[in-house]
Each structure stands twice: as C-alpha cells, then as structure tokens.
Amino acid sequence: MTETENIYKKRQILSAQIDLSKFNKKNFDKATDEEKKQQEVMGESSSFLKDGLRRLRKNHMAMASIIILIALIVAIIVIPMIVPYSYSDMITVNGHRDGTAVNLPPMYYSQRELQYMQETGEKLFPHILGTDSLGRDYFIRVVYGTRVSLSVGVVSAVMVLIIGVIYGTISGYFGGKVDLIMMRIVDIIYSLPDMLIIILLSVVLNARLTPLIKGTVLAKLGGNMLAMFIVFALLYWVGMARLVRGQILSIKNNEYILAAKAIGTPNGQIMRKHIVPNVLSIIIITTALQVPSAIFTESYLSFLGLGVNLPMTSLGSLANDARATITSAPYRLLVPALVIVVIVLALNLIGDGLRDAFDSKLN
Amino acid sequence: MSENEKKPLLKVEHLKQYFPVSQGFHKIPLKAVDDISFEIMPGETLGLVGESGCGKTTVGRTILRLYEPTAGRIAFEDQVLFDSGELYDEEGNQILDEKGRPKKGRRVEVNMLPYRKKMQMVFQDPYSSLDPRMTVEEIVGEPLDTHHLYKNKKERREKVLSLLETVGLNAEHAMRYAHEFSGGQRQRIGIARALAVNPSFIVCDEAVSALDVSIQAQVLNMFEDLQDKLGIAYLFIAHDLLVVQHISDRIAVMYLGHMMEIADADELMNHPIHPYTLSLLSAIPIPDPETARHSHRIILEGDVPSPLHMPTGCPFRTRCKYATEKCAMERPPLTDRGNGHKCACWNR
C-alpha cells in the first residue's frame, strides 16, 4: 500500500469515515455521455385528456355504463329499421286493421295473424312485448319512447350547457357590478318553484306553439315537447351558470390570466383559451349529470300528461298509460320504468366516473 | 453619454393606486401605492425593495396598466400612457384651485395593446403563472399570436424554439406541459413568454423569490445576459436585498406604499440615509459568523400600520427612533441628497 492510498484508509474503527481503500479507481470515473443521457429521460408527456381517459378506463362501473348506453343508443336507432310495426298505427294483417290484436300478452299472435300465417305459411314478426289497448306493438313503442326521452335529455342538457357556460363565464370573468346584476337574475330564477313554472309554461306555450309549427317536422314532436325544451332552457341553466361562475372566480385569480392580460390578449380570447379549458372538466361532468335529471323531469311531466303529443310517446307517458292495466299487464309499466332506471343510472355513473377522472381537485 | 441615452425609458410621476375596501356600508380606500415617482433609463435595472405588502407588486402591475391607476402619470418612450390630469408644481406639490380642490388637466388613457409589445412582465409564482392546460409551445406562442408576429406556422414554431433556446431550454421541451417542469425551468418558460414580443422593458415581479438559491443564481445571470444582449430595462421587484444589489443599477426602497429612498445600488448599500433602509440593511444575513457577531442589528418595534389607517405625516414615524413632532405633522418629501441619492426623511 502506497502512501497516497493510505490516506483514504479508515483511521479509527468507530469512525464514520468511508473506507475509500475498498473502492478502486474505476468507481470514481466520470460518467460517459451515454450514462448522462440515461439520467435525462423524462416520463412520457401526458396531457390532461390522456391522464383523465386513462383513469376513466380503470373505472369499471363507468366503462360498463358507457357500453350499456352505447348499446342502447344503437338499439333505438337500429330496431325501428328491423321491426316491421309502426309506433302509431294499429297492427294490420294483409292491409286490413286487426281488431283482435288488442292487449296481446308478450310473444303472442292475434287470431287473424295466426290465421294468416296458416294460410300463407309466412312467419310474422313476433310481438315481443305484446300490444297495447289500441292494438299497437308495445315493443316498438318502448323503443320510440326511449328515443324521445333520450333526445329530450341530450337536447336540454346541451341547451343548459350553452346558456349556462356563456352566462357564467361572462358573469364570473367581469365580476363587480356585472356579476352582481347577473347573479341576482339567477337568484330570482332559482327561487321560482320549478314545477309550477314548468306546468304553467308548457300549458301556455303549447297553445301558442302548436299552430306555429303545423306542417313542419317539429309538429311530429308536438308543441308540448317544444314547450318542454324551452322550459328546460329557461329554468335549468341557472345551476350550471352558478357553478361555472364559481369556478371562474377561482381561476381568474391565477397569474396566468394576468400574464395573458399583460401580453395584451383580448378578453374573449382569454376566456376561450385560458378560462373555459380550465373549467371544461367541471362543465362536462355537470352536463353528463344534467341529462338524467332532464329525462327524469320529462318522464314525470309526461306521466302528468304534459309530455309529448299522441300518438308519439315517451317513457313517462308509456308508464302513465300502463296504469290502467297494472293488474292485468304489469310488465307494461315495468318495462318503461326499467329503461328509465337503466338510462338514469348509467348516465349518473358515467358522470361520477368523469368527475373522478377529470376533476383535478379530487386527484 | 449621448443626448439620446439620457432620455428615460419609463417615467412614473405621482402614481397612486387605491383599492376600495368595503367596511360595512363604507368604502375606505386602501392606499396600496401613494404618490410614487421614478424613472428608468433604457437598459437599466431598478431594484424595488420593501417588506411584504408595501405595494411593490402593485407598482409593477399598475405601470403595465393591469390595474387602472387611481391617479398619476405614466410615460413610456415619450408617449404618455396614462395621465389622470392632476397638476403639480416644480416642487412636487399638487396645484389646487381657489376652492382647494386639485386643479385638473386633460385626462389621457392610451390603448395599451401596442405597448404590450414593449413592456412585459415575469411573474412571481412559476406554478400559477403558466396555464396547466397548455403546452410550452402554446404558452410561448401566445404573445406571438396576439401581436401577429409571424407569417406562417413554420415561422411561429421557429420563433418559439429560438426563444426556448435563449432561455436555455431545448426543442424537445416545446411539446410538454408546464407541470412536467421544475420551478427553475418553469420560470424560464415565463421569461421566454415575456421575451417573445421583444420588449424593451420587463417588470420582474419577485421573479426569483420562489426559486431555491442555486437556481436563483442561474436565473439572475440569465437576466443579466439578456440585458447585455438585448438591452432590456428591468424593474426588479424583490425582498431579498442581496439579490437586488447583485442585479440592480439603482435601488428604490418602499414602505407602506411610499418611496423612502432611491439611489445607485452601491451608494444605497454603503451609505444608506433613511432609518428604514438602515434597518433593512442590518437585517441582511452575514455569511461570516465572526463579522456577524460584531454587527449591530436594528430591530424595528411594532408592526407595520394597516394601509387602511395610515399614520399622519411620515408613514414610518410609528416605528422610527428619530421620529419628532414634525414627522407626525407633515409628510417628508423625497429630496435630493447629492448624486441622485434621494431620501424622504426630515431628520437625517
């Protein structure tokens, strides 16, 4: 052992000094460029969206709900193309109305249909859920009812989204007196009893709208339906507006908003580029949760007889009609009720899943 | 020095910024900045120091008109950006009319958009000053978009990349999000954003306070390099006196919204006049324990008075050991003590 190496040797047994004589010189070589590069490797760049989707995919309940909902949407689009019956007309056999096909139990044929099948050997499409008291295929009516209910939910959620986001963003961003006035208007709307206003408005609007839309595509839906849309748009955006405003008030104080102002970015662009993307997650979640609540409201309005015009139907009005036959054919109430439950539950679970995945405050 | 260089880049006169604070039914003005005047020459760094809540940040933001000033005059490159119209005589006293109300001249408010290209800001908090939903390229490219500083997408990208290179980041970083960076890197992104419009003046609002010491040095050196290269003037707001001394040509000391002392950096550090500056300087930690043992620390008594209930006369008198009756009666003016060293004190 040479003199220089001796310096590195531990002098005392109890000393905490590292015994350098145990290492050879190679351990202290400078890192090569290649080794340095290994240190520089950063994680895969992951955006907010990617992160959220990854978390969403791990949520089995939400994923199952999404699949069920997609299946349901595909079904209500495809089934009317396959099933040869109409939601609005009595069942016809060979071009003649079939008076015997009233109140059929599921999977039964009427006398005339049986006769017709015997004569021609042709197989008629089964009445999966039987027929109603007017001789209409019940299954196709449920499918159409689901269509109507879902579209009411989606359309009203979109309307709530648009009005609420614009209103809330303006109110929250400008603050001060603008905010004060806009929020008092919201408070007034909030304090109105929803149910009363909905019923009054749909009665009044229905009378006004029906002559206006005569002959157009909208007439099929009926004035009641349009009245309902307008009512939703008028009343239900306030919750969204409040929520968005609250979020924006907190985001507004971030320095990146001030930085954008210092850059000279116009107000509109600050809202679009900085504020809305940062409240987007909350907006999406609330919209997803808005859909089932709209479906629910539509259902009980239809149940009260304020829903779509006959012969168009919705899940709520199907349930209402089924009350008459609740003892003889309880499945007529159960089926639409079950569909409502499935839709509402699935959408709520999706909304919850989205919130867990995208709301940064929970992570 | 040529004639051209003597013109100040930024001239702030009698700047006031009050915020209304409601107390019950009354609205009381919170005097965040009260009558401040200073000049910044092209390529110069003015350090602005003072304790927390004394209005340093407000000064910086008001100059950029991120807040609408209550009163005063801001001129940049000979162009008046804001003038509330109050008139002052040569000694700095407000000219009043017969009824004792301030005499008003013409009010000027200039559209700031063209000046946003010349005056920029670097923010204190490297975490909240970058939008978490944007990539670095979008953040740095935003000022380019606002001021239409490119012809096509390719040119925009090239500009962004060269800006990132200027602040010591590389092209690989452009596609990443702000949360993927460390504090020092984030601050560099913030600086790149400020540099994007090629400004001649940058307000650095506690730009290094949130960084740890080794990174502070890197960023400070970068500020100096950029100044040498691009001739940018800084208003450097900080509470760390050593940092300010290191980077500043001149230093201004603020207390409770008022300017207490302003002088060349070395002059202020070596020959402070104002009692508040003296106590601030005595609070600088001394790295050598032997010297520190013999140094005398001036400890101020009491708390900073609330800016809602400002003391009469000199704002510092409640904590000043030299305070006399005169201090309570009248506010001391900022007077020249030679060599451009100005101080607002009756007794020293």
Beta-strand residue fraction of chain A: under 5%
Per CATH, what is the topology of one domain in chain B?
Rossmann fold
State the CATH architecture of the largest domain in chain A: Orthogonal Bundle
Mean pLDDT metric of chain B: 86
What is the assembly state of the chains in this entry? heterodimer
Order of helices and strands of chain A: HHHHEEHHHHHHHHHHH
What is the first-to-last residue Cα distance of chain B? Answer: 32 Å
CATH class of the largest domain in chain A: Mainly Alpha
Helix content of chain A: 55-70%
Could you say what the CATH architecture of one domain in chain B is?
3-Layer(aba) Sandwich
CATH superfamily of the largest domain in chain A: MetI-like
In whole angstroms, how far apart are the ends of chain A? Answer: 59 Å
Give me some keywords for this one.
heterodimer; A: 363 residues; mainly alpha; MetI-like fold; 2 domains; two-stranded antiparallel ribbon; 15 helices; 1% strand; flat; B: 348 residues; alpha/beta; Rossmann fold; eight-stranded mixed beta sheet; five-stranded antiparallel beta sheet; 30% helix; 22% strand; globular
Can you put this structure into words, describing what you see?
- The complex is a heterodimer of chains A (363) and B (348).
- With 363 residues, chain A is mostly helical.
- Chain A folds into two domains: 252 residues, MetI-like fold; 46 residues, no CATH class.
- Helix content of chain A is 67%, strand content 1%.
- A two-stranded antiparallel sheet of chain A has the order 1-2.
- The longest helix of chain A has 37 residues.
- Chain B is an alpha/beta fold.
- Chain B has an eight-stranded mixed β-sheet, sandwiched between helices. Chain B has a five-stranded antiparallel β-sheet with strand order 2-1-4-5-6.
- In chain B, helix 4 runs parallel beside helix 6.
- Chain B starts with a helix and ends in a 5-residue tail after the last strand.
- At the A-B interface, helix 12 and helix 13 of A face helix 4 of B.
